[in-house]
Amino acid sequence: SRSRGRRRRSRRSRSRSRDRGRRSSRKRGRSRSRSRDRSRDRRDDKHKGSESSKSRSSTRRKPRLEAADTGRAGGVYVPPFKLARMRAKIKDKKGEDYQRLSWETLRKKINGLVNKVNVANIKELLPELFQLNLVRGKGLLARSLMKAQGASPGFTHIYVALLAVVNTKMPEHGELVVKRVIHQFRRAYRRHDKIVLFALVKFLAHLVNQLVCHELVAL
Question: What predicted TM-score, i.e. pTM, was given to this entire model?
Answer without folding.
Answer: 0.60
